[in-house]
Every structure is written in structure tokens, then in C-alpha cells.
Amino acid sequence: MEIWLNPACSKCRTALATLDEAGVTYTVRRYLDDRPSAEELGEVVARLGLEPWDLARPRETREAGIDLPKDAEHRQEWLTALAASPRTIQRPILTADDGTTVVGRDPESLARVIAAE
Question: Does residue 43 sit in the same domain as residue 84?
Fold first, then answer.
């Protein structure tokens, strides 16, 4: 399993504690330091069944000046903007070895990705 996290984020720390408690082996990607590419983000949103703007943190997106229409025509621009400003990306993002991917902000999502391991 891989977890994209910001160590300063309480939801990320909770996700790590949950993985540790479940005995799951994982690798950590500090996505603020090891930024995902627009292509990687496109793959993540596809696995999540979302659009790029669904992965954006509203306040951080506004602060970053990202003001794009939420439509298919601007999808790539969203991916590029999120990749350029990774603080705007929801966290933590967990991907199980089978490809199951969740934004692990709640116990149900964490349980789903742990079950996939």
C-alpha cells in the first residue's frame, strides 16, 4: 500500500495510526516534497471515480488562485494546477496493491482500503 500524506495533517496521522494498528505494510509519499505529476493525479482521480476538482481542497484552491470551470473542457488544466500546487490536494490518499484507492479522511474509507490489502 502507498499513502500520500502531509505529516502536519491530523487526518494523515490518524490514517497512519490506523494502518499501523491493522498491521498493514505501506510506503509513505510526502506529496508536498515528492509532487505527483498531472498524469499521476489523472490516474488517481480515475481510480477514485472522481473529477480533479473533487480532489481539490476548497480553501487552499482559492488561496492558490485556482479558479477554473468545473467541466470536462478544463479537466487537464485542473490536473496541471493541482500538480503545481500540491497543498490543494485532499489528503491522505491511500492506494492498496490491488489498485483500490481512497481519500482516507474517515474510518469507512480507511477500512475499505485496508480490506483490499
Answer: yes
